Amino acid sequence: MCADTVSLIIFSPVIASKAKAGQFVVVRASEEGERIPLTIAESDAAAGTINLTILKRGKTSSLLCSLNKGDYITDVAGPLGIPSEIEKFGTVCIIGGGVGIAPTVPIIKAMKEAGNYVISIIGARNCSGLIFEDTIKKYSDQYHVCTDDGSMGYKGFVSGFLSQYLKENPGKKPDRVVAIGPVLMMKAVCDVTGPGGIKTIVSLNPIMVDGTGMCGSCRVEVDGKTRFGCVDGPEFDGHLVDFGLLNSRLNIYCDEEKVSNEKYMEKHECKMKI
Ligand code: FAD
Ligand code: FES
Ligand code: MG
Q1: Does the residue 57 lie in any domain?
Q2: Quick check: is 261 in a domain?
């Protein structure tokens, strides 16, 4: 994995035997710790393991990324959320940005196994952020890479590549696009697919606490209606999502998160930007 992203392979046989593409778990890293949601990037029912791929952002993700082989996590609850809609749509274009590449992996596999022609587009700041490349290549009919700095593949954002691809291949409009990554990336992809009426599914990442529909912290607005990301999603029709509201709600605890992270970093004598 790249420097700031870590994959944890967790022994959790019940979750591994039930997990479906698009689902997530809620993890509590330590007894006093907060709960955070993480997507199940891979599951192996025979081995009883799940793969959680985590980007170091603040206190809890840093703590999880610092775990070593044989360590324990206090709680892992799941699988949660409605699984991805998988059927034979025809041509499906699956787009992952940054750590959002990880959740595309089970969807790419499932879409391929359902008989779709799969076009995968992954993007990161630079080539060291391109994760799961071998697995994605294996299950894709077309595989495209984008980097912000041009260190590999198309220089620019995945949305820019998609726009160019659609212009250059006018007769090959995908039947469905799935986009997972930062809010602005998912919105930019929807802006590209909107005019052509290409159905676009996004996986929303609102702040979640319980992950079971009880606390309301994951409220999002879809088609003018309030929905809960954890139980009604996390996947929604991107053309109906209020991305502005999602983005502003994601930032409401920034001050507290900064303080908490600074305390954690002081204690662990390491430097990290959030
Ligand atoms: P903090 O400093 O506490 O927060 C940094 C930022 O992360 C915040 O500003 C906020 O935007 C977001 N965040 C903080 N707390 C939460 C929370 N409880 N729920 C959601 N977002 C939060 N990240 C990954 O690296 N890998 C994944 O596979 C992954 N899957 C996700 C699946 C879902 C359904 C959702 C909703 C989020 C997912 N995330 C994933 C995001 C991950 O949960 C946050 O990065 C993490 O909670 C940050 O915690 P922190 O304490 O390290 O950072
Ligand atoms: Fe509590 Fe969705 S996380 S209702
Ligand atoms: Mg936190």
Answers
A1: yes
A2: no
- Is the pTM of the predicted complex or chain greater than 0.70? yes
Residues 147 and 39 in one domain: no
Query: 3-7, 46-50, 68-72 — which is least confidently predicted?
Result: 3-7
Given a cut of 90, whether residue 238 has pLDDT beyond it is yes
Instruction: List pocket residues of ligand 2, CB cut-off 6 Å.
Output: 208-211, 213-218, 228-230
Which element (helix H / strand E) includes 166? Answer: helix 158-168
Full domain range(s) for residue 26? 5-80
127 and 162 share one domain: yes
Claim to verify: residue 106 and residue 58 sit in the same structural domain = no
Distance 130 CA to ligand 3 centre (A): 24
On whether both 120 and 202 belong to a single domain, the answer is: yes
Is the CB of 274 within 6 Å of ligand 1? yes
Picking from 193, 235, 192, 233, the residue whose alpha carbon sits closest to that of residue 212 is: 233
> Domains in the chain: how many in total?
2
Q: Which ligand is nearest to the CA of 226?
A: 2
User: Is the per-residue pLDDT at 273 higher than 50?
Assistant: no
259-265: Cβ within 8 A, 24+ apart: 260/58, 260/59, 261/58, 261/59, 261/62, 263/59, 264/58, 264/59, 264/62, 264/63, 265/62
Mean pLDDT computed over 141-162: 96
Nearest residue (by CA) to ligand 1, atom 30, is 38
Does ligand 1 lie within 6 Å of residue 250's CB atom?
yes
